[in-house]
Amino acid sequence: MFSNELITQFDRLKTPFYYYDTDFLNKNLNILIHEANRFGYRLHYAVKANANSRILQIISDYGFGADCVSGNEVQKALENGFKPEKIVFAGVGKTDEELQLAIDKKIFCVNCESLQELEIINSLAEICNKKVRVALRINPDIDAQTHAYITTGLQYNKFGLSLQDVDYIIKNKEKYSNLLMDGVHLHIGSQITNLKVFRDLCGVVNNVLHYLSQNNINIQHINLGGGLGIDYSEPENQIPDFQAYFNVFYQHLTVKPWQEIHFEPGRAVIGQAGALITRVLYVKENGSRKTIIVDAGFTDLLRPALYQAKHKIKNISSESGEMLYDIAGPLCETADYFGKGLLLPETKRGDLLVIYSAGAYGEVMASQYNLRQPAGKYFSDDLLKSKKHKISTLKI
Fold it and tell me: Is there a smaller number of Cβ atoms within 10 Å at the N or the C end of the chain?
């Protein structure tokens, strides 16, 4: 991923910065689209993973829809080439203004997460004299076997409607005369690496579809969220196994020929295409431990502090010797570490370190805590003038 020519260019740039490999991103998108097209699946990129405008423009050029969780994400998706008829809007706490924006922009669907939200959307639609498409986001009570902070499909999570809520909707359909309730949405979490979890999800979806059909609610589109994980331990040039992922749904989901299947990949699209480049400020000893202090902090990559996540880290300036190091940022917070007890070449002030797999939930979660300056952003095709890949587009 990092040639000597590229490392030389990195050394001239102000650190820290995010580096995006557009060649890898194009390759990843082409493979993802090829596998989705085999089954006629529809894709909405999860904007929350990375909302960099150039990234959004690259992805929208492939014909993706957008999965948004705020009004600002809806607006930014529209500004960067995503068609309104391919935008879905989820989120447990949408404001009236955000819902009005979605209605005004005529997006494809609002994924509804509570009975009260359903009533509000119906009222807004009535005022506008419009029929608004909604999908019922149903909480399937499935353990995604991932970090507690990114699990969204358990009964005690704040997301989605319960089956009791669905019963109420069925019995009171006449209350929602301004809504077209022809979709369901089930998203159970993020960074899921055990595909059996998705097979379990299929079983719940099959039961839900059968129950709704029995009660004369005809579902046209089935949104199965995202959640496919990436390999943080061996990230270099690693493409997620999209074929195995989609095969699970093809084999275990029972749907009618006219029903559309939608997915919302985010991390699996952009995670491995980005890295955080940081420079060593100091190497110090804390008792028996050697600590590398770098110029990036959790203001630039929050995942290790928030989720106790482990990212592969490499010294691209040195190959001599090996030592155990802790790697810490400059913030006045004890949580500001990127890793502990990591084996690296002997490291000195001025060396460049790469923190891999920072394409998703890196730049988009950045802050200016401690009044830190935002990290820079660089793209491989600008630095190396890479050749563009031929683009495949989603079949619609």
Answer: C
- What is the set of domains in the chain, with CATH numbers? 4-17+272-383 (2.40.37.10), 40-265 (3.20.20.10)
Alpha-carbon distance of 263 to 41, in angstroms, equals 7
Distance between CA 123 and CA 117 in Å, rounded? 10
3-state secondary structure 92-145: CCCCHHHHHHHHHCCCCEEEECCHHHHHHHHHHHHHHCCCEEEEEEECCCCCCC
**71 close to 102: Cβ distance less than 8 angstroms:** yes
Q: Cβ neighbours of residue 83 under 8 Å, at least 6 residues apart? A: 65
- What is the per-residue pLDDT for 141? 59
- Per DSSP, the three-state class of 353 is strand
| pLDDT tens per residue across span 189-247 | 878 999 998 998 899 899 889 889 988 888 999 999 999 999 999 998 899 999 999 99
Q: How confident is the model at residue 166 (pLDDT cuts 50, 70, 90)?
A: confident
> Can you tell me the distance from the alpha carbon of 396 to that of 393, in angstroms, rounded to the nearest whole number?
9
The whole-angstrom distance between residue 291's C-alpha and the CA centroid of its chain comes to 32
- Angstrom CA distances, 349 to 200, 280, 293, 342, stand at 50, 5, 9, 17
Query: Does the global pTM surpass 0.85?
Result: yes
DSSP readout, 180-242? EEEEEE---BSSB--THHHHHHHHHHHHHHHHHHHTT----EEE----B---SSS-TTPPP-H
Kindly list the distances between the CA atom of residue 174 and the CA atoms of 84, 109, 169, 170, in Å, as whole numbers in the listed order: 28, 20, 9, 9
Locate tokens 């704040």: which residue? 158
Looking at every residue in the chain, the average pLDDT score rounds to 91
* Burial zone of 248 (CB within 10 Å; 0-12 exposed, 13-18 middle, 19+ buried): middle
Predicted local confidence at residue 150, as pLDDT = 37
Torsion-angle region of 132 (φ positive above 0: left; ψ -120 to 50: alpha; else: beta)? beta
Residue with tokens 């008829």: 85
By CB atoms closer than 10 A (0-12, 13-18, 19+), residue 145 is middle
